[in-house]
Design goal:
By secondary structure, the protein is α/β, with parallel strands linked by helices. It has eleven helices and 18 strands. It is globular.
């Protein structure tokens, strides 16, 4: 890790440029200005052994001044599950210690504290892990898992790429050409769209494919990174152009594409992500079709949904040489059916927004669970997430991460929620540079 941190210090300006290009897949917990609920655990690294007690300390401050006589409500329990400990306190002494929390098996315990102050509601959390390296997946790998996906790839390979490229002169510059591109996906007429950035200088270059976080949006590409000598491709997953006006995507997300992670979950052959996974593989075909690609050095990267797609694509295609997955989604999808948190999109959570756990849906989920793909990863990867993530819970991510036997490096930022922080983005850039740009 030291060599990466040293490189980070030298590359701060470049990394900030990359950070600006990294899409923040979901919002983290926004902290209202001036008032902060600080919840901290008695182990600095926030890690414990199973059955070891944890003590949380809570303070509330406004502009740096500790507040007293504030009524707090607190809950402690396994993340995303019902609390096992609840209480209130008036915070007369300026701080509160909450003890008695622990876990009987590997997982994550979360303390959530809320208070109302001057008419506004505030919230703070702290999440601690209990032997997270021992968390096992609840997902069952279908017996024909590999056969199914090999067959899907074989069928998709028969579809002509039919690549199309449109130069975006207003986004290009003296050293990089930027294109709006598309290519055929898993069946005739089905297309994937993206933004391609290619160095103008004649030569052969390594490449990285960036997969998107959840939602429906336009994409800008990454000309800043391409200017350093790297082909970059950002794709959208929904089969629509990625350079339209923002309100088009908002309307689609609120309309026809709303709830897309649940579309056709009854069938492995019709589930929405079948065409998405094949589109990710076809994106590698597109990279290999470019005359500027060096034919060997290829990385995939993404966060949240994009982190999931990065792991899936790496598992499905040996052409990927390096993997970056931050706070990956779609991990251990049956967690809720086994009494613990599962990953986004929370298919089987106890919520009216999500789907009943029918036999067909559970069976289908096994073919799309990142924890099952993780077993097939064979190349070096870098991974990062935070313990306070309430979208892709760390319990679910560790269930997948622990299945990866390939060389892997993990960077944990315990206090981070569901975002890619500046520090994480610097590590992201430094690692990519060490693997691709110094070849």
């Amino acid at each position: 890790m030291k060599k990466y941190l040293k490189s980070i210090l030298k590359k701060t300006v470049i990394a900030v440029c990359l950070f600006a290009c990294i899409s923040f897949v979901c919002n983290g917990q926004a902290v209202p200005a001036g008032v902060v609920i600080n919840v901290s655990a008695d182990h600095k690294d926030q890690l414990y052994k199973v059955k070891e007690p944890v003590v949380f300390t809570v303070t509330v401050s406004q502009n740096g001044t500790v507040l007293r006589n504030v009524k707090l409500n607190y809950e402690v329990g396994p993340e995303k599950m019902l609390p096992v400990l609840k209480g209130t306190d008036d915070l007369k002494d300026g701080s509160l210690k909450i003890s008695g929390g622990t876990m009987e098996q590997p997982g994550f315990l979360r303390c959530v504290v809320t208070c109302e102050y001057e008419g506004k509601l505030y919230r703070g959390i702290s999440t601690v892990g209990f032997d997270p390296d021992k968390i096992e997946t609840t997902s069952i790998t279908p017996t024909d898992f590999i056969h199914f996906w090999n067959n899907e790839k074989a069928m998709a390979a028969k579809i002509p790429l039919d690549a199309k490229m449109e130069l975006l002169a207003d986004r290009s510059n003296d050293v990089v050409n930027v294109y709006h591109i598309s290519f055929q996906n898993h069946q005739l007429g089905s297309r994937i769209y993206g933004i391609l950035c290619v160095p103008k200088k004649e030569g052969k270059y390594p490449a990285v494919v960036r997969f998107p976080g959840a939602g429906v949006r336009a994409h800008n590409g990454n000309p800043a990174f391409a200017s350093k000598g790297l082909i970059t491709l950002e794709i959208g997953i929904h089969g629509i152009p990625v350079n339209m006006k923002g309100d088009v995507y908002d309307n689609l997300y609120k309309g026809a594409l709303g709830g897309y992670p649940y579309f056709n979950l009854d069938s492995r052959n019709s589930y929405y992500f079948r065409r998405v996974f094949m589109g990710c593989v076809k994106s590698l075909d597109f990279i290999y079709s470019l005359p500027q690609f060096d034919g060997q050095n290829l990385a995939v990267a993404g966060s949240s949904q994009g982190g999931a797609l990065s792991i899936v694509t790496t598992a499905l295609d040996k052409r990927v040489k390096y993997l970056l997955a931050f706070c990956p989604a779609m991990c251990d999808l049956t967690g809720y059916l086994n009494g613990r948190a599962a990953g986004w999109p929370n298919m089987f959570a106890n919520s009216t927004k999500n789907l009943a756990a029918t036999k067909d849906k559970i069976t289908t989920s096994g073919y799309y669970d990142v924890a099952n793909f993780a077993k097939l990863v064979q190349v070096p990867g870098i991974y990062s997430w935070g313990y306070n993530d309430e979208v892709t819970p760390p319990t679910s991510i560790y269930a997948a991460y622990n299945n990866i036997k390939a060389p892997k490096e993990l960077f944990i930022f315990p206090e981070i929620a569901h975002v890619v922080s500046p520090d994480q983005s610097k590590i992201w850039f430094s690692w990519l540079e060490s693997k691709l740009l110094k070849k």
